[in-house]
Design brief:
Layout (H helix, E strand, L loop, with lengths): L1 H27 L7 H17 L3 H13 L3 H17 L8 H13 L11
Helix pairs in contact: 2-3, 3-4, 4-5
C-alpha cells in the first residue's frame, strides 16, 4: 500500500503544480477593460441601424434600454417614437408615465434649448 500512496501523492503534487501554473498564466493575462461609454455608443449605433432598416420594435427596445441608462439622445428618440408610434410606424410603443417622465428628464439633460415641445 505504501507504494500506491506514494504514487498518488506524486500525482497530486504534479496536478497541483499544473493547476497553479495555469492559474498564474491566466492571472498574468490582463482582461480587456470594457468602456461603458464605448459600449453605449455601439448599442446606440446598432439601434439607429435597426431604425433605419425599419426594425422599429428592435430599435425601440434598444433605445428604451439606453434611455433607462441615462442616454439623452436615445431617450429623446424613444419619447418621440412612443408619442408618434401609431401614426408614423403603425405601432404602439408602451411607456408608462413614470418611465416617460424619467426619459424626459434624461432627454432634457442633453438637449439645451433645442425644440422641447415635440417631446412633451
Amino acid at each position: 500500500m505504501g507504494a500506491i500512496d506514494a504514487g498518488w501523492r506524486a500525482v497530486w503534487r504534479s496536478l497541483h503544480v499544473i493547476v497553479m501554473s495555469l492559474a498564474a498564466c491566466s492571472a498574468s493575462h490582463a482582461q480587456p477593460i470594457i468602456d461603458p461609454v464605448e459600449t453605449r455608443a455601439a448599442l446606440f449605433a446598432h439601434a439607429l441601424r435597426d431604425y433605419e432598416r425599419q426594425h422599429f420594435d428592435a430599435a425601440f427596445r434598444a433605445l428604451s434600454g439606453l434611455a433607462d441608462q441615462g442616454h439623452a439622445e436615445a431617450a429623446r428618440i424613444a419619447l418621440l417614437m412612443s408619442a408618434h408610434g401609431p401614426r408614423l410606424y403603425g405601432l404602439r410603443f408602451a411607456v408608462d408615465e413614470p418611465q416617460r417622465e424619467r426619459w424626459l428628464q434624461v432627454a432634457l439633460s442633453g438637449v439645451g434649448d433645442r425644440g422641447l415641445a415635440s417631446m412633451r
